[in-house]
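Q: How would the structure tokens look for this protein?
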Amino acid sequence: MRLYTATITSNNEIRAGVHLIEMHVPALASAVQPGQYCMVRCCHALASDPLLRRPFFVHSVRPALGLCTLLVHVQGRGTSWLGGQREGGTLDILGPLGHGWEVRPTVRNLLLVSESSMISSITLLAQSAIEQELAVTLVAHFSNAAEVYPPALLPPEVEYHIITADGSLGEQGEVQGALGDYLVWADAACCSVSRETAVVLYATFERMRGRNFAQALVLRPLVCASGVCLSCSFETLSGMKVICRDGPVFDLREVARSVTI
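A: Here is the predicted structure in token form.
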């Protein structure tokens, strides 16, 4: 973990309230692993409001150029300030932090599962897996067509299966309805979904209950990013964990089996 000063090279609003911010920060671009996050100071250098940093997953990297991107959904004061920053501005970033996704060397077919804005935690994994010549399928669920993550932001080699709750784009339904055939094909599954959905997937599919097969993301507000404040602690199968330090990625069995189904 290090403190970086990143220079913004572009800020593109890919849809209303969602910005893709590209930054030049070579050391972070070389160090970050898929599923790790950064804490970004979301105010001017001489200001102190908002006081607390905001967590963001690194969306993609181009290490040869020293570039990283963040996918920012504008929701409050901190993200509003960040979304308004322009080319040439600087950001104060602490990272990389946390325990990210782990893909076993024997994996050849990788299934990614995502819901809504949580897709930002898994896009760097898709990029990394393609660079390692893995076959990658992403099954992603959104409320409607307006919320769908743009296919152009994914590596073209990724098979992208879109599901919307209202059927306005792609398949209509819930994410578990599309996973059956993909689970037979996959050597591993990485699930960037709510904890409630993770429990449903674990209960529904025997394949998801296999040892070292599935991982899941657990999200809560992160305050200190060091495990000191314990505000992000939660119960797992093997005991209490803190998301900011022990996660945010955990074995699915650790997450789901600690919950009464």
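The first helix runs from residue 26 to 31.

The chain is about 20% helix and 35% strand.

Upvote if useful.
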